[in-house]
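Reply to dn_fold:

You asked what the input looked like. This is it:
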Amino acid sequence: MIRTNWPQQLHRIAYLSAEGNYTFIHFTDAPDWLVSVNLTTLLDEFAGFIRIHRK
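and this is what came back:
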């Protein structure tokens, strides 16, 4: 489980992008975060987010 203040931040997230075992969290109004959690784990934690593949 991820321990942080995510409930206060979720409405600010524009999108997530994977980079190996890391995930970039792109915000609408703040600098991006690089977190050492893979995208699958974050999606399990964040209700309401869906994964979209682009090829």
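Helices lie at 6-9, 39-45.
Hope that clears it up.
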